Amino acid sequence: MTRIECMPLVLVCLCIVTCWVAAEDKRPHIAIRGIYGGVPVELLEHGTLQEFGVNAIFMGSGGITDERIALLKTQGAKVFAEFNTMHVADYLKEYPDAAPIGVDGKVSPPPHGWQGICPTHPGYRRFRMDAFREVLSKFEIDGIWLDYHHSHASWERAEPDMPDTCFCERCVAQFRQQTKTELPNETTPQLARRLLGQHNDVWVQWRCDVFTDWVREFREIIDESRPEALLGTFHCPWTDTEFDGALRNKLAIDLKAQAEYLDVFSIMPYHARFGHAADPSWISRQTAWLGKHLSIKGEPTERHRIWPIVQLSDWGETVSIEQVRSVIDHGTRRPATGVMVFNWGSLKGQMDKVSEMGDYYRAIRP
After folding, report:
1. Which fold has domain 27-97+112-158+212-364?
2. Which of 205, 207, 261, 295 is close enough to 252 for a disulfide, judged by CB 3.0 to 4.6 Å?
3. Measured in whole angstroms, how far is the alpha carbon of residue 3 from the centre of its chain?
4. Residue 255 CA from chain centroid, whole number
5. In this predicted model, what pLDDT tens digit does every residue of 60-113 receive, in sequence order?
6. CB-hemisphere CA count at 13 Å for 274?
């Protein structure tokens, strides 16, 4: 066959590949194209949310008002609240006994300024549950996302700081009673060594169960207050083996256990912040692991969904405008069925990136 005779076949093949790529680029499996960080009023000065391909806004629960919800609804956007669970540091001013205790028996300093709270403090738990219920009862939101739902630690960086906590008398007593573990009457440092040594497996599981039980109660409140709303979580993007299994061992995050109560997992693969500035494909690798770990494929019939929050703003390392499309590309690959960009507070001053985001969002819009 001559070169010319081969041309029709080559054109057919190119046509097939082009059609396949176009269909893949559309990504009909992506139902949510969001922005995190409040109402993007600066964007609205340049057009509508729909013109930028945006159909969802995520904002802190403290910044939600009826007026803001009404404005976003007229733009055809869903509104999701972010809810701080274990990071309300001001609570310690009135209730210092809620501070996490370290292996030395003293209050554990906030790593990199990130102050956590003891997860068994009953007053703090009531405080957060009451606030959670109030947000759901007052505002017609489409869902609410748990944030900072992990132990006292600073992990949103390439080199995390994750001290072992909490060894307060309350935590140790509950552990002893709930796990039927016999412990001698020793000092806190001695008990901490035992719990992190011979009893480590039981200790880690118990801590995970404590945080999971919070999620169970959040689910109950949603089912009572606004059952149509989704319950999501912003969580650490590591696999179960990274940093010696820190997801469970240090942060007390048991994703499989929490899945019983959650609808959406918003993994936080901030590639630049986490030391992968030159490798946006890290985003899709972490998301793929999460899907495999939780048996989520990204099908529309599945109960659980994965909606990554990806970094476009400069935090730590710079995210260049040339990376915007690649970042969102990797954030929208299955098993993801939604995506949001981080964060409007910084992006509003980088409208060139916002324009690139809008171009990509429009291109993948069904």
Report:
1. TIM Barrel (3.20.20)
2. 207
3. 54
4. 12
5. 999 999 999 999 999 999 999 999 999 999 999 999 999 999 999 999 999 999
6. 20
